[in-house]
Amino acid sequence: MTTTTDIAGFVHRFEPGSDPARPPLLLLHGTGGDEADLLPLGRALAPGAALLSPRGRVLENGSPRFFRRLAEGVFDEADVIRRSGELAGFVAEARRTYGLPAPVALGFSNGANIAAATLLLHPEALAGAVLIRPMVPLSEPPETDLGAKPVLILSGAFDPIVPAENARALAATLERAGARIEHRTLPTGHGLGQADLALARAWLTDQRAPETV
Hints:
The chain has a single domain, classed as Rossmann fold, CATH 3.40.50.1820. Helices cover 31% and strands 25% of the residues. It has helices spanning 39-45, 77-98, 110-121, 164-176, 194-205; strands at residues 3-7, 10-15, 25-28, 51-54, 58-60, 63-65, 69-71, 74-75, 104-108, 128-132, 150-156, 180-186. Pfam families: Abhydrolase_4 (PF08386). One of its GO terms (molecular function) is hydrolase activity. Keywords: Hydrolase.
């Protein structure tokens, strides 16, 4: 059963889980996606996990995003900070509503960027993350303690949007903050491919749900 509703100003979909050993997934779409976009991916990568999928609240030429940008690859960092706080508030309210432990974020492109920002600014909101084609979201990241939260970063060697050094800088930033980083660079561009799916599926299989909500 899929529920579509509004919590904390976010239109979203929620699918209850059937496997309590799997942490819930917070599905964060790329530019132009919506709350339905990553549900099939979540089902394929983590069968039995609860799925929580919000729609980004910012519109760019009619396309939903999770925060504003000034140009491709140039973020409105004040908006990044604001919107990551809103997303953390949504996660907290959704956890209370649905009785969930902290989720693992699964984000693609813009969704991966807001997930990375949320990890840095509101680490209590997430149990970890799969970041597919992310960039550094904040030029001056805050000091934070990620307490060994697991993070998988999947970058593309031929990505025309995310320079390789930018992806490496994000991995280094999260590692300095205490995250357990696995960073893989694949021989592909910005799009999602089968190698991403295989790596993400295996990584998620290794994760375990928190003992308590």
